[in-house]
Inverse folding.
């Protein structure tokens, strides 16, 4: 078979495996609070035409007794929402299509027009699933430049089944992780494009990709180093000559978040400062470097051992493309340091493995392709074993509390229960009465994306970055328009705002989400025998609960 035919067959194989996985394991729903934080932008801006999330938070059970559970009121009278708007902008076209579908299909009109129920939710989760597919296809295309079809295709399959990408594309997909994996894959692809094309459009596209990736998850901003590493010194000088275009693309890529942040916090950079302050991450108070990699509390190498093989493969990539290997290893190292220190809860709360390495997915795929191409069966056997282990955890996920620490023995004992759940049943994570409706919505969402992709494909390649920039510019203007309604509506939520500010003042700035952090850390330290550290955490927990009890008591005494 000719090389082009082999590539087409590989792409079809990836799509077939993806589609089969989707029909087996897609799971509608929202993980509270993270998924809610990402999704609320959609109904708030499209249906309510504002950036006030109070009614969405109330509907999702995140306002109790007049107090936000995970957010505080900002200086502008909004609810703090550190979850960035980037994923919502990726979901937006399908969400709007779902709203139209709900309006015209009689059987869907029974669903409330709230932007959260099944028709809207399917639009979100299918878009994230497609983001996972696109990540695999881009990764395959990049790996194919150095390695054969077989190694690159096997690496794509291994990445799907052996990393967190499958889980966050299908099982917990109303989050930022699949969009983040895609956004950073695009950053790598546009950076490599600069090797052969340093046109104004290519430089602008690279900046735009980095800006958008940062808007999906702020830690993705670290990928700004990739273009400067992967190109040679001559190309680097050319890039610096056009750095204004690179910066312009980056600003446009992140502009919607800056506009939203200005309304919510009163400053465009509020999402990067006040937002972190609002959730009690306790950044840089501890460094969990070893735990981040080797702990059974969602460690990178324990839950997804394929990542260790991939890193070894990146060392092999060093011989084939040293700059790309350096960019990959440096990016993984930066994420390791950031994830080990910027959030005290290194386990990332309700998490399947080390989900915060999502942005390195394309580098893991490249490393696996390099390992398989160079070491063949000596790498193939460990790769199959690693994927098998991660898939066993995939089926165990519904039988253990992913928010709490599970020892290896506890995970191992849960495997029979996971395998007894008919893991190959169609739409098994959808309630039986809703499966036919869900399948109809899935087909509709895929069709909508196919039309969008076909329309984009008709646009000349040199104009696609301009089209993406135009979309972000239009959405920025639209978000500014929706935010302009906020000032006239804030008064309707003044009671919640006043109670939130009063609680924050009396409790010393703590919110209700911090209790889980301390409780889970305490459980982890006790179960791993670190008693002295556990005692310190227990004291912090008691201090937190004491201040909260004091604040609530004073507020009860003061009355409504």
């Amino acid at each position: 078979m000719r090389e082009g035919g082999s590539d087409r067959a590989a792409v079809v194989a990836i799509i077939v495996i993806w589609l089969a996985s989707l029909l087996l394991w897609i799971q509608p729903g929202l993980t509270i609070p993270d998924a809610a934080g990402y999704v609320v932008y959609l109904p708030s801006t499209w249906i309510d035409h504002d950036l006030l999330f109070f009614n969405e938070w109330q509907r999702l059970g995140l306002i109790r007794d007049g107090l936000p559970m995970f957010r505080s009121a900002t200086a502008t009278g909004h609810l703090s929402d550190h979850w960035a708007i980037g994923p919502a902008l990726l979901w937006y076209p399908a969400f709007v299509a779902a709203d139209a579908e709900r309006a015209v299909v009689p059987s869907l009109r029974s669903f409330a027009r709230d932007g959260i129920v099944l028709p809207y939710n399917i639009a979100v989760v299918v878009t994230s699933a497609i983001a996972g597919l696109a990540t695999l296809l881009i990764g395959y295309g990049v790996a194919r430049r150095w390695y054969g079809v077989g190694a690159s295709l096997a690496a794509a399959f291994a990445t799907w089944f052996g990393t967190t990408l499958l889980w966050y594309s299908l099982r917990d997909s109303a989050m930022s992780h699949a969009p983040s994996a895609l956004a950073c894959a695009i950053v790598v692809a546009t950076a490599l494009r600069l090797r052969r094309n340093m046109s104004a459009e290519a430089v602008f596209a690279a900046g735009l990709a980095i800006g958008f990736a940062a808007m999906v998850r702020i830690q993705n901003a670290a990928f700004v180093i990739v273009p400067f590493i992967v190109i040679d010194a001559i190309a680097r000088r050319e890039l610096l000559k056009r750095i204004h275009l690179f910066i312009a693309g980056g600003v446009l890529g992140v502009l919607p978040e800056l506009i939203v942040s200005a309304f919510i916090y009163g400053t465009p950079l509020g999402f990067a400062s006040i937002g972190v302050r609002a959730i009690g991450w306790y950044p840089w108070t501890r460094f969990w470097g070893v735990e981040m990699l080797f702990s059974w509390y969602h460690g990178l190498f324990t839950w997804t051992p394929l990542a260790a093989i991939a890193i070894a493969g990146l060392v092999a990539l060093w011989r084939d493309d040293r700059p790309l290997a350096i960019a990959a290893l440096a990016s993984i190292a930066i994420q390791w340091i950031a994830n080990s220190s910027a959030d005290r809860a290194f386990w990332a709360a309700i998490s399947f493995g080390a989900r915060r390495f999502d942005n390195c997915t394309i580098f893991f795929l490249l490393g696996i392709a390099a390992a398989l191409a160079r070491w063949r069966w000596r790498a193939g056997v460990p790769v199959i074993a690693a994927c098998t282990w991660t898939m066993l955890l995939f089926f165990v996920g519904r039988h253990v509390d992913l928010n709490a620490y599970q020892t290896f023995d506890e995970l191992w004992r849960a495997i029979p229960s996971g395998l007894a759940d008919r893991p190959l049943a169609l739409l098994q994570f959808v309630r039986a009465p809703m499966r036919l409706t869900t399948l109809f919505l899935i087909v509709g969402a895929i069709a909508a994306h196919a039309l969008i992709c076909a329309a984009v494909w008709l646009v000349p390649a040199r104009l696609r970055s301009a089209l993406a920039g135009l979309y972000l510019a239009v959405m920025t203007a639209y978000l500014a328009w929706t935010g302009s309604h906020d000032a006239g509506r804030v008064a309707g939520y003044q009671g919640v705002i006043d109670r939130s500010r009063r609680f924050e003042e009396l409790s010393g700035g703590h919110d209700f989400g911090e209790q889980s952090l301390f409780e889970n850390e305490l459980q982890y330290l006790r179960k791993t025998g670190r008693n002295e550290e556990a005692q310190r955490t227990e004291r912090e927990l008691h201090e937190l609960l004491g201040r909260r009890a004091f604040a609530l008591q004073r507020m009860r005494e003061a009355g409504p």
Observations:
- The two ends are 76 Å apart (CA to CA).
- The first strand starts at residue 63 and ends at 64.
